[in-house]
Amino acid sequence: MTLKSFNFFKILEKDNKELVHSAFLKHLMEFDKTFYTEFIKTEKNFLEPKLEKQYSLSKKEKGRLDIVAISEDNSTLVVFENKFKSFPYREQILLYDKILKKHHKDKIIIKLLICFDKRFVENYPGWIIADYGDLLLFIEKHYSMHSQEDHSIFVRHYYNALSDYFQKYRKLEQDFGELFSDLSNDTNKFWLKLFYSALKVRLESYMAKNDIDADIYVNNGNTTVPLINIVPKAWNIEDNELLIQMQGNDIKFYSHSKNIFFLSDIKGFAQKQFSDMPYEYKRETKRQSKTQFILKTKLLHDRTSINVDYLFNHIVRFYIRLNENVILRYVQTKTSN
Predict the structure, then answer these.
(1) Do the beta carbons of residue 295 and residue 274 sit within 8 Å?
(2) Rounded CA gap, 109 and 128, in Å?
(3) CA-based nearest residue to 244, from 295, 192, 298
(4) Distance CA 24, CA 22 (A)
(5) Burial classification of residue 244, based on how many CB atoms lie within 10 Å of its CB (0-12 exposed, 13-18 middle, 19 or more buried)
(6) Cα angle vertex 117, ends 112, 122, to 5°?
(7) Which helix (H) or strand (E) holds 268?
(8) Alpha carbon distance 258, 29 (integer Å)
(9) 70, 116, 196, 234: which has the highest count of C-beta atoms within 10 A?
C-alpha cells in the first residue's frame, strides 16, 4: 500500500460497514454545529445522538432507527437513516413513520435519509433525501484536506474512503457488466446487491402504478450469488407459487412447488406458447424439489454492458410476456375445462 492510498478505514476493513458510516454521521452531529445548521437545516441545540435506537411497536413488531437526537428543549427530534448497502424501500419508510408516530408524536420531527443516489429514491412525504455526494461536498466545504491536526486527519481519511466508493458507484451505475465476471468476489457482490436494490425500487414503483400486487425480494436468505425474486400474487395457482428470478446471468420463470404434475403441465403449456423463443426448459426428472426453474434465458447474450435501466426493461418485458402468454392463458384454459 502506497502512502497516498494509506487509509485507516480500509486497513481496518471497515470502509464497507454501514454502521461505521452511521457512526461518522453521529460524530458530525456531536462535534460540528454546522452539520446541524447547513446539512440538517435546524438552528436548535441537540443532546448527544443515539446510534441504532431500538423501538417496540408490539410484542411481535420492532424497529430500529439508525441515529436519533433530541433537542435540548425536548421539542424536536432529528432522525437520520443511513442506507449504505441498499436503497430505501417503501415498507421501511412506513415502519419508520409508524415508530415516530407512536413514540414521538409530541415532537417536531426532522427526518433525513442518505444513500448512494437520491435519484433512485421516491419522494416520501416529510423526508429530506440526500446522497453521499452531498455529504462529500459538505466535508469539502467545512474541513481542511491538508491539516495535520488529529481530527482533520480522521475526517480526511473518512472522506477519502467514502469518495472512493462514491466514484466507483458513479462509474458502475453507467455499466456494471464487469460485476458478472466473478460473482464469488465479495466486492462484486456488494455492488451487485446495491444495484439489485435500486432495481427493486424501480420495480416496486412500476408494480404500484400498474396495480400489480407483487412481493420483491433482494438476496432473500443471503444466497452465495446475489439474486432478486419477483413474486406476483396472481401467479399463485392452486398453492403453486410462480415467480421471476434473476440470478447471475440467468433470468428464470421459477416455481416454489413440489407438485410434479402441475410443473409438467405449466412447462408444457409454456413451451407451446414460446416455441419460437430461445428459452431453455427444465429437464424432466423423478427427483422432487421444492424450487426449480421452468424456463430461463440469458440476461447478457452477446451484450457486455448492463445497468439498472437495462435490467428493469428486460424484467418488465419478461413479466408481460409470461403473464399474457402463459399465466392468463393457462388459467383461462383450466377454467374453461
Answers:
(1) yes
(2) 11
(3) 295
(4) 5
(5) buried
(6) 65
(7) helix 260-273
(8) 53
(9) 116
State the CB neighbour count (10 A cutoff) for residue 58: 7
Q: How confident is the model over 245-255, as a mean pLDDT? A: 92
Cβ count near 271 (within 10 Å): 15
Edge-to-edge order in the sheet of strand 127-131: 50-56, 62-70, 76-82, 108-115, 127-131
Instruction: Return the pLDDT at 70.
Output: 96
Task: Domain of residue 196: give its range.
Answer: 178-336
User: Helix or strand or coil: residue 75?
Assistant: coil
| C-alpha cell, 319 | 413479466
Q: Give the chain's mean pLDDT.
A: 90
Spatial distance between the Cα atoms of 221 and 208, rounded to a whole number of angstroms: 25
Residue that is last in its domain, among 171, 196, 211: 171
Maximum Cα–Cα distance across the chain: 80
The reported pTM is 0.90
The one-letter amino acid code at 30 reads E
Q: Last residue of some domain: 171, 190, 214?
A: 171
Same domain, 305 and 212: yes
Residue 154 lies in a domain: yes
Residue 254 sits at φ, ψ, to 5 deg, of -120, 160
* pLDDT above 70 for 1: no
Radius of gyration from C-alpha coordinates of the chain:
24
Which residues, at least 6 apart from 115, have a Cβ–Cβ distance to it below 8 Å?
82, 83, 84, 86, 87, 88, 121, 129, 131, 132
Residue with cell 375445462: 337
